[in-house]
Design goal:
Blueprint lengths: L1 H16 L2 H10 L6 H11 L4 E8 L5 E8 L15 H5 L12 E2 L9 H10 L3 E9 L3 E9 L5 H19 L5 H19 L13 H11 L4 H8 L3 H15 L4 H9 L16
Antiparallel strand pairs: 1-2, 1-5, 3-4, 4-5
Helix pairs in contact: 1-6, 2-3, 8-10, 8-11
Length: 279
């Protein structure tokens, strides 16, 4: 018993030493000296996690108002990548009451199973999610979320308990506005990569209906609105409805921004609309 205890202590201490660099990187990112994703990558690697995220969840609504993700399996054929917060799935009604630094595990949650979380974990062959509240406020709460392919063992759980207090303290003392700015940059990057570059691709990332797609194809060829209306044989009000929906789906504000998105990438010129089940 004494030998095993000594071995466990030595194992934890060795693993704890391996956390020094990731925690230091975390501190650097909170003062603008390193990207947030690098900090998440370091933490995930140190505790054998597959994906990690910092998510700001609006109190009451339970929706993320800003998130930064790291996913070890992103870009491969490993299934969907992490791109949303699952804090509410684990904390439920305690979302805005959880004590910062306390670790909540999916496997120990009393909340009803979340089908979206279950589907994501099943597709990625993940089995556990640990959620650590970093702050608690009247308007929003910030969380660190860590996904695992195997259930964290005693050493991993010990490491999370050891560093959680440091993560919370450093988060509280981070440079003002830094996280919000990083989230905005993340959103701009995501829009550029997923909508601007592929708006008329066969993957149809904006989920345009067939009619909306046809409108975009004609606009991308330089057709004015009146010509689009005439070519499609639709009324002016119907065209306005299509455009309103397209603006919302492509995150553009007006015709100028939409046309810029459509013509800024000429790779897809001349493509025919993707068949879509939407009316």
């Amino acid at each position: 018993m004494g030998t095993n205890a000594l071995f466990d202590t030595h194992t934890v201490r060795a693993a704890e030493a391996g956390m020094i660099a990731p925690v230091a990187r975390w501190c650097e990112c909170l003062h603008g000296c390193a990207p947030f994703r690098d900090a998440l990558s370091g933490l995930a690697a140190a505790i054998n996690g597959e994906a990690a995220a910092i998510c700001r969840v609006s109190t009451g609504k339970g929706r993320a108002s800003g998130s930064i993700f790291f996913d070890k399996g992103a870009g491969g054929r490993n299934g969907p990548q992490l791109e949303r917060s699952f804090a509410r799935s684990v904390l439920g009604s305690y979302l805005d009451k959880a004590k910062p630094g306390l670790i909540w595990y999916k496997s120990m949650s009393d909340e009803e199973a979340d089908p979206m979380l279950d589907r994501f974990h099943s597709a990625r062959k993940l089995v556990e999610l640990a959620v650590i509240p970093l702050s608690s406020g009247k308007q929003h709460t910030d969380f660190l979320e860590l996904h695992f392919a195997t259930r964290p063992g005693a050493v991993q759980q010990a490491l999370l308990n050891i560093i959680s207090g440091t993560l919370v303290r450093t988060w509280t003392n981070r440079s003002p506005g830094l996280y919000a700015e990083a989230c905005l940059k993340e959103q701009r990057t995501g829009r550029s990569a997923e909508v601007q570059a592929h708006l008329l691709s066969m993957d149809n990332p904006a989920q345009l209906s067939r009619a909306e797609y046809r409108v975009c194809v004609l606009l991308s060829k330089g057709q004015p609105a009146k010509r689009v209306q005439s070519d499609l044989g639709i009324s002016k009000s119907t065209l306005r409805t299509h455009l309103r929906n397209i603006y919302a789906k492509t995150q553009t504000r007006n015709m100028s921004e939409l046309v810029y998105q459509l013509v800024s990438v000429d790779t897809f010129a001349g493509q025919t609309p993707r068949r879509n089940s939407a009316a």
